[in-house]
Amino acid sequence: YAMLLSLIFLIVLVAAVVGFVFRHEIKTNFESNLNLALRDYNVTANRHSEAVDTIQRTLHCCGVQNYSDWERTEYFTQRGIPRSCCKSQDDCSEEDLKDLRKAKLKVFVDGCFFLVTSTMESKMSVVAGISFGIACFQLVGIILACCLSQYITNNQYEMV
């Protein structure tokens, strides 16, 4: 049991170190994947399009860097900016969403990349605290399992 807990502890430790060391690569990878999701965005409900819509609705953002990123997509030429960018769903018409000048007044203008990364960085201290707490419990479990193993080994011949 102590060996299993030690193995899990080491895996978590390595994952935390790798995540910290490669955090800039993670940001770059996220930005390129978000750009790909915008490029491949379509009306059919695939998981990438749903993820983009959820991010834009939840964080009140639009596009990667700003709302004009949609202009370079195939979806924009057909239908304009997606409705998930609208500040108010009642006040967003398809004609407004096809014109960037009109859309600027009706959609969120901030890009999602900065908001997602800043949200993740602000929550990182909470994640680190929870991880540290779990690691402490694992260490206590490892120590107690080793003590129990030692106790059983020492008292093996004294059992009646």
Automatic annotation (TrEMBL):
At the top level, the lineage of the source is Eukaryota
Listed A to Z, the keywords are: Glycoprotein, Membrane, Signal, Transmembrane, Transmembrane helix
From the UniProt annotation, give the residues forming the signal peptide. 1-19
Membrane-crossing ranges are 126-152
List the record's Gene Ontology CC terms alphabetically.
plasma membrane
Classification lineage: Eukaryota, Metazoa, Chordata, Craniata, Vertebrata
Q: Specify the protein's topology with respect to the membrane.
A: Multi-pass membrane protein
Task: Specify the protein name.
Answer: Tetraspanin-7
Q: Which Pfam families match?
A: Tetraspanin (PF00335)
